[in-house]
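Fold this sequence, please.
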Amino acid sequence: MNLKWIAVLMILFSLLVAGCVSDNDQDDTDGNISEGEQNETIDEGTPELDNETSEDEETPVIDNETTAEDGTDSGVTVVPSTGPSTYTIRLENFLALPANLSINSGDSVVWINFNSPTRNFVLMSNEELWEDQTIGYRGRYVHTFNETGTYTYKIQGYEERMKGTINVI
């Protein structure tokens, strides 16, 4: 009788341990990044719909007395944004995409590291607009371009594939 109870307890213990163990084979992506090199991480939970986003997006103005062209009551008037924009350059598959951008003065560019396999990249400005920036996996670096001109950037060690031009008008 005692042998049966021991067998039952061992089976229950095995099931308990099996339920606590994860089958998820994800690696610790930050394991190869030393402290101080990790930049801000990005949540990919919501996909980016457009490469251009406005920092000063205005909310729609609701005007209940507005009528649409067909005579129906629309209720919403959209006010276009006139503020500076932010552009995204994705660092992935050992490429910088898009490599070349044309932006307005006052706009910002954000470089985000989505490369697989995970590794750190060092972003360099050929015109020395910023100090060399180490961007960890899912990390980012943002720079605002306030002066017109043509500026080039590259990723140290991958200069042939990961480079680009930003034309500020």
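The CA atoms of residues 99 and 164 lie 4 Å apart. The longest strand covers residues 85-92.
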